[in-house]
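Before relying on records like the one below, remember that each one covers exactly one chain. Contacts with other chains, cofactors or solvent are not represented anywhere in the record.
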Amino acid sequence: MIIFPLYIDPGTGSALFSILIGAAAALYFVSRAFFLKLKTVFLGGRNKINTGKNSKYVIYSEGKQYTNLFRPVIIEFENAKTEIRYLTSSYDDPIFDISWKYVKPEFIGEGNKAYSYLNFINADFLLMTTPGLHVYQLKRSKYVKHYSHVLHAPSDATLYRLFGLDYYDSILLTGDYQGNDIRFLENKRELPKKQLITVGCSYLDEYSEKIKQLPDEENHIFTVLVSPSWGASGLLSLYGEKLLDPLNSSQFRVIIRPHPQSIKSENLIINKLQARYNENKNIIWDFERENIYSLKKADIMISDFSGIMFDFMFLMDKPVLYINQNFDMRPYDADDLEHELWHFITIKKAGIELSKESFVHIVEIINNAKDNETLAAARKNACKEAWFYHGEAGKRIFEFMKKTAENIA
């Protein structure tokens, strides 16, 4: 018997492989959902998880990193003497440090434990920053009448993983421009139209006030803030000492503020770099929860594709240098768009691109960027496009929640 070898051309093989991976992922998440429902039924979990009593207003915070975003909102509820439940996945959320009368904070656990709670919660209006509703473990509860997502960055709304916002009823924008891409995806995917409400950016409002309270430094030294994202395409992973060595040789003070996820995922890289510059007193590492202290001290920022560049430009009105990477859009909603993202168009206008070949000239580049009027004008224009209603976001979010809940009632 002659056995003929089976040949599959590379294109067909790649397609089959993608189908198998997709089928495996679908089976995994379907099975997880099935066992979650089975568990809640047999353990009486449905009655335990669902509070039974309907809550008119609920906020869910993934953790204390979002406290500054939600605080202006719950202050409005407190001042209006209107009760709201604040559910958090941080047991040490700073919200617990404040004595509230109308705000009811609760720790509901992390990860799947929190999702199990939320999947059966009872509320008229639920506000979250969590993307991927009804895509993975976090499902729409049949006891919630309105799901609203508040954007937690003034950059593109399509920089979430695929289908990140598809199953929300409303999206709260920081600037009008973000709504255009959401509408494009709705049309392309034949989705119901969501309410798109521009409210501003509550955490930028919060930071703006906090920074005003910080004192200016005595004997200030010109300071470069290196504040990258994390992962294989992040600045520290790709370049590390290639960028930091020229800065180390300069007369500048250098603050390195890694992304919080870097501490978990890139600990070896950070330890190596800390050891390398241990003797230089002008290199400082910042691992504080809030970035405002470093933003206040910095005269210029070096980053990659991190959205912190816009925080720095909008709050401090100072220049940014960025290292452009070939950002892989395929896992993100942005991959379904047919135009370049606002994020990348804007940073080209308002920032100065660095290449690894230019690192040796970093001091000269920084000196030339200090008083660049073209960059300053571009920063102001970007701020007008992306950050509406300065100081009003908390009030506008509260008013939208109240109006929507009343219409539901």
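Residues 207-386 form a domain with the Rossmann fold fold (CATH 3.40.50.2000).
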